[in-house]
Amino acid sequence: MRILVVEDDKDVAGFVVRGLKEAGHVVEHADNGRDGLFLAASEPFDAVVLDRMLPGGIDGLRLLETLRAQKITVPVLFLSALGEVDDRVRGLKAGGDDYLTKPFAFAELLARVEALARRGKTDAPITKLTVADLELDLLSRQVKRAGQKIDLQPREFRLLEYLMRHAGQVVTRTMLLESVWDYHFDPQTNVIDVHVSRLRQKVDKPFPAPLIHTVRNAGYMLRADNI
Question: Is the pLDDT of residue 180 over 50?
Fold first, then answer.
């Protein structure tokens, strides 16, 4: 499952993200309300773990109310130190599906998140990503462009998947390091440039119009302007 954790406390976030990954889930993390809202509104997730008190001008209640106003029905588990009955009621009335107070046992959090995600699976899961004539099959792990099969290494596949999920958006080095390499620091190497270059050789070079673009002083973007 793909799970979004929106939590500003580094220790709590690290504990939850690490545990969810060890349980076999794909996890994205945001440490403030604005980034959390952007991710939740722009990417498909099976569940969201959401702190009530967040920096960035958008707290957990406002973030969730905004999502529900946009008809985004992803199941949300509030994770908060605010444990009074009135606090729990406000969270549930804002559109939350469950509420867990801190401190908590990770086993209980995991069970609740997985139960919410199962309950929320009313639509067919996304199994294929498509941008212009580029197709990525998440089940068979195959990539094709203009009907031609493209062989990718596992890291190249993850990189392309991330770019396609964020098609039309600028993807920064930090985003790639955290989501594709699982680095939460900059190793000060050219590992990203090397892999993007290899990916371009396979995805762009044999075809008339490039899809992977460099955004100067920002990062990369996969877009289909010229298709």
Answer: yes
86-94 own/partner pairs: CB under 8 Å, 24+ apart: 87/52, 90/61, 91/52, 91/60, 91/61, 91/64, 94/61, 94/64, 94/65, 94/68
| DSSP category for residue 219 | E
Q: What is the mean pLDDT of residues 26-38?
A: 92
Q: Per the confidence metrics, is the pTM higher than 0.90?
A: no
Going by CATH, does the domain composed of 128-222 fall within 3.30.450.40?
no
Q: Could you write out the DSSP letters of every residue in 88-157? A: HHHHHHTT-SEEEESS--HHHHHHHHHHHHHHH--SPPP-EEEETTEEEETTTTEEEETTEEE---HHHH
- Superfamily of structural domain 2-120: Response regulator (3.40.50.2300)
15-45 as b/e: b if 16+ CB within 10 A: ebbeebeeeebebbbbbbbebbbebbeeeeb
Task: Give the number of other Cβ atoms within 10 Å of residue 150's Cβ.
Answer: 20
